[in-house]
Design a protein that fits this description.
The protein is of the alpha/beta class. The chain contains 18 helices and 17 strands.
């Protein structure tokens, strides 16, 4: 048998102790939501059925005494009568137990559905899902917290709550019975007589108290271990998803061995954490198993002297043992539920951490000065005194002002890493780091097309019309868009469901992006390296068709290829050394070529281009801002 390494995990679990207020803030909303009456009604029904089970348990305990007394007295008629009574009580107990579980599961899934909807809404609203990627705290695997932790919290909260209610009701019901059955214990201490009424109640309380304290000290490490185990499981699953999504690139690189080593290292975290869990569970099980087994015989040992003294009958002895077991079990609820409490606490901590991260993400735009993106009644796009920064506060653009008039065509260039894509994010209103103002013409259709367009797992017509619904377009619209985008091979796949980001090549995905352009018919089109995976002939054809179909279109492109400049009139060059934008006119021949001949050669930058804050006008003039 292979031994477990003793090295600690690579990342220690955070010391998270959620306050009662935070836990209540997590659990409370459902019970005061639009589903509150259904939820409260189901909860009342579950609690009522559990209390009915407790009542039936009390009746069964009384039946137990009568049954064994009948056996001891060899009363055959009473024996048969009590068997019939048992069948009735057992049938009622089974019905109560079955429907208590059924309605509890119904409440669990309703609560989980509501919580999932709330967290998905918060995750997807205000671009929190995007801003979380920029948060330096970097919450791991938000999808696992929504999919897994919400289910654990909803299920275990109800299980633990109903279990605790059941334990309290059982304690109250059997405590009086045990007190009555115990009688008074007479002792002599230091020569003085001592009478202890209901002595078995005090023994049960002491027994359960010692067990509870010992269980906590033995098993408290499980909370942190469960937190780590859930996190490492999620990370391992995420790495495998990454391999599946990037299968072609890994195959081309021949990276199988490297990925195997990475998966091995990732699973190593699970391995080490699992061994820690095994050791902790072993210690806890040693204690709880011994504690439980001792509880079986302990009440009989304590009550045996009174039985042998003739103070109680055999039925009284068995009833005393049963009542002691019920009281002790109720008082030991914490002992029995500790592993589930540890799992529940870990998931609650993860959900609270996720909620706090969402709150930070939503507050992020307000916590910095922010880039104010607003609609403008004018026809032009204006950028005023724009400062762009990275999350680590490094500046990539200082005090830049630009104006692009409607109908203009501008290419944005600069060295890799100079901030071209970040500038586009700022224009789109999704980049929170920086200051300045961006005014976008209102009542204009604006489309941003990234280098790798997002393709949902859906039918092709849904992928083409994303983020709109496909009902707004006809089959003729879809077919024409596919033909315009040079994708005739997909004409018969409109209703096919697929993971298109894996089914299509990089070039085909970029042409899907252009098909969206032909469907959406924007007034302003922003392209971020949207043709980088295409050959130059296809690139020219698509740019030329866009220019032909939408003559009034304002086009802003990020591109490194010189040929793309043929379809633009202006060039904005980001200069990382000075953190400025240099603006220049493209040669008039190139601008004319982009209008009349999509296949013409690319022009060069105006040699007189100079740095500064310039307003770009559609009539070909440069005006100092």
């Amino acid at each position: 048998m292979t031994g477990a390494p003793d090295a600690p995990p690579l990342r220690q679990p955070p010391a998270q102790r959620s306050s009662v207020a935070k836990v209540w803030a997590l659990l409370r909303p459902y019970w005061f939501s639009e589903e509150r009456w259904t939820g409260r009604g189901l909860l009342a029904l579950v609690v009522g059925l559990n209390l009915a089970g407790v009542l039936l348990a009390v009746l069964l305990a009384r039946w137990n005494r009568q049954f064994f007394d009948a056996l001891q007295g060899k009363d055959y008629v009473a024996f048969l009568t009590l068997l019939g009574r048992f069948c009735l009580l057992a049938a009622l107990y089974i019905v109560a137990a079955v429907f208590a579980q059924y309605f509890s599961q119904l409440l669990q899934i309703r609560w989980r559905r509501w919580l999932t909807g709330e967290y998905c809404r918060d995750w997807l609203s205000d671009r929190s899902y995007y801003l979380l990627q920029l948060d330096q705290s970097n919450v791991e695997n938000p999808e696992q917290r929504i999919q897994d932790d919400i289910g654990i919290v909803a299920t275990l909260t109800l299980d633990l709550a109903t279990g605790l209610i059941n334990a309290v009701a059982t304690l109250g019901s059997f405590l009086v019975m045990l007190w009555t059955l115990s009688g008074t214990l007479h002792l002599t201490v230091a020569g003085l007589p001592l009478a202890i009424p209901g002595y078995m109640v005090w023994v049960a309380i002491l027994y359960a108290a010692l067990g509870t304290v010992a269980t906590h000290f033995v098993g408290r490490s499980l909370i942190g271990i469960n937190f780590d185990l859930q996190r490492y499981d999620a990370e391992f699953r995420f790495r495998m998803i990454r391999i599946r999504e990037n299968a072609e690139s890994i195959a081309l690189y021949g990276g199988e061995a490297e990925e195997r080593e990475r998966l091995k290292a990732s699973f190593g975290h699970i391995w080490r954490t699992w061994w820690r869990s095994m050791k902790a569970q072993k210690r806890l099980t040693f204690f709880t198993a011994g504690y439980g087994q001792l509880a079986v015989v302990f009440p009989i040992l304590v009550a045996a002297p009174r039985y042998f003294a003739g103070a109680i009958s055999l039925g009284g002895l068995t009833q005393t043992s049963l009542a002691f077991g019920r009281v002790q079990s109720s008082l030991s609820w914490f002992v029995d539920a500790y592993p589930r409490i540890a799992q529940w606490t870990a998931s609650v901590n993860r959900l609270i951490g996720f909620g706090e991260a969402l709150a930070r993400a939503k507050a992020l735009p307000a916590s910095v000065a922010g880039i104010q993106v607003s609609p403008s009644p004018g026809p032009d796009l204006e950028v005023r005194r724009l400062d762009l920064r990275l999350p680590d506060r490094r500046s990539i653009l200082d005090d830049a002002s630009v104006r692009i008039e409607a109908g203009d065509r501008v290419v944005v260039s600069g060295p890799s890493g100079s901030g071209k894509s970040t500038l586009f994010r700022a224009l789109a209103g999704i980049w929170p780091y920086g200051t300045g103002a961006v005014a976008i013409p209102e009542r204009r259709r604006v489309l941003f097309l990234p280098q790798r367009p997002y393709l949902p797992i859906a039918s092709l017509r849904e992928a083409l019309s994303y983020p709109n619904r496909p009902e707004g377009h006809t089959d003729t619209d879809f077919r024409r868009a596919l033909l315009d985008a040079r994708l005739p091979q997909l004409l018969d796949c409109l209703d096919e469901q697929a993971n298109w980001s894996l089914a299509l090549s990089g070039g085909e995905q970029q042409r899907i992006g252009f098909a969206r352009v032909f469907l959406y018919r924007p007034d302003w089109l922003f392209l971020d390296e949207a043709t980088s995976a295409l050959d130059e002939d296809t690139e020219r054809a698509l740019y030329g068709l866009v220019r032909e179909r939408f003559p009034g279109l304002t086009l802003i492109s990020i591109a490194h290829r010189a040929a793309v400049a043929d379809f633009h009139r202006r060039r904005l060059t980001l200069c990382p050394e000075t953190r400025t934008i240099r603006e220049g006119l493209l040669p008039a021949g190139a601008a004319r070529a982009s209008t009349s001949d999509p296949g013409s050669a690319a022009g060069a930058i105006d040699p007189e281009a100079r740095p500064g804050n310039l307003a770009v006008r559609g009539d070909g003039l440069l005006v100092t801002a």
